[in-house]
Amino acid sequence: MRVTFMLPFVLAAAPALAQPAPVAPAPPAPVAAGSCNVNIVRAPDPVRQTIEHWLANEHCTLALQVRIIPTEGGLYLLATDDRGRVRERIVPDAQSAGVLIASWAADDGLGGAAPPPGVADAGGPPVAPPAPPPPMAPPVGYGPSTGYGPSAGANGAYGGPPPSWNAMSFHAPGQYGPNDELPPPPVVEHPKKLLSLAAGFGANSSGGLRLELELWNKSDWIIGASAGLTGSSLDVYDYNANDYYNANVTDFTLAMTLGRTARWGDWYLRGNAGAGIMMSSMTLDHYNYQTYATTSGSGSEASAYIEAGLYLGHSIGSSKVWEIEAGPVLWYSKQDWYLSDSNMTMYRDAGNAMFLLGLRHGL
């Protein structure tokens, strides 16, 4: 009875004893020194090649899975090692990425890895998951296209740039938004000094030319020089002596002028006055009605000269280099001509009023 009772018990326990005991999971095998187990899951090809070049000569102790994403400011690196630790960093270029990933694989303490969520360091409490990095703030006065200019208002992207900032300078060509404010065009200044050339006709002359050069300009007060050339004719009758004189005179003038210009946009009003010298040459024909005698003579005379002018003008074109103007010029000179053939003196009050039309060009 005793043997019979024990035998079933032993036989029943035997199958249980024959099963193998469960094996505890083995820890991840360390990477052999001198080789690198780095799986680059995602990366641009040029960056991948640079990283592989750096890993070729590295002695690695950790296996890594790496993702590399181009982002604003450089390359975003995200790496997970065989211990579950996560590393992430933004580097400026592929060389920096290669150096950093090689240091992570070598576990040389440069990576700053964080343990996975809920996993405790040896001898310490569970470590909280790392906080996500704060979003990168844009530079001062910079934001998306919808945040530029007064059209975005006070609630534009990142609060809107300061009013003095020119948003358009940060756009690539062809990247202007429909609501962007274009910068104002540059202001084109009127020339400070100009050269004038005019032609016209006068009350006591057959016509003339005038040249003006502005030498100095201070707050639109202008000192300049003028030169003029006119032609005129003069008829004189001496009824007592039955004499008739016909004089053809050419006058050349040089003067220094002082004037002022007032501007309203592209319109202007310019006035000046001057004093100088008049040099005249005359050809005189004489005819006597009693003797029917005809004589001719010529001569020259220099005398003091004064002038005054007033012009209304307007700029031509957007460059404002050219201007057109028109207005009257008055001048006067008194001359005494001695007629040697008759021992007489002829007095000439050389006053004239001319209307001129001319062009001016900035210097």
Placed side by side, the strands forming the largest sheet appear as 5-6-7-8-9-10-11-12
- Derived from helix and strand composition plus strand pairing, the structural class reads mainly beta
- As for the CATH topology of the largest domain, it is Porin
Query: Regions with pLDDT < 50 over 5+ consecutive residues?
Result: 1-33, 110-124, 141-160, 165-170
Globally, the shape reads: rod-shaped
Mean pLDDT: 76
| Helical content class | 10-25%
The domain count comes to 3
Written overview of the protein:
The chain has 363 residues and is mostly beta strands. It has 3 domains: 38-106, 2-Layer Sandwich (Double Stranded RNA Binding Domain); 147-181, no CATH class; 194-362, Porin (Beta Barrel). Helix content is 12%, strand content 47%. It has 3 helices and 12 strands, in the order αβαβββαββββββββ. It has helices at residues 2-18, 45-56, 94-106; strands spanning 38-42, 64-71, 74-81, 86-91, 194-202, 205-218, 221-238, 243-264, 267-288, 294-316, 322-339, 344-362. The strands form 2 sheets. The protein has an 8-stranded antiparallel beta barrel. The protein has a 4-stranded mixed β-sheet with strand order 1-2-3-4, with helices on one face. Helix 2 crosses helix 3 (94-106). The chain is rod-shaped and about 140 Å long. Mean pLDDT is 76; it is low at 1-33, 110-124, 141-160 and 165-170.
Chain-wise SSE layout:
Layout lengths: L1 H17 L19 E5 L2 H12 L7 E8 L2 E8 L4 E6 L2 H13 L87 E9 L2 E14 L2 E18 L4 E22 L2 E22 L5 E23 L5 E18 L4 E19 L1
Parallel strand pairs: 1-2
Antiparallel strand pairs: 2-3, 3-4, 5-6, 5-12, 6-7, 7-8, 8-9, 9-10, 10-11, 11-12
Helix pairs in contact: 2-3
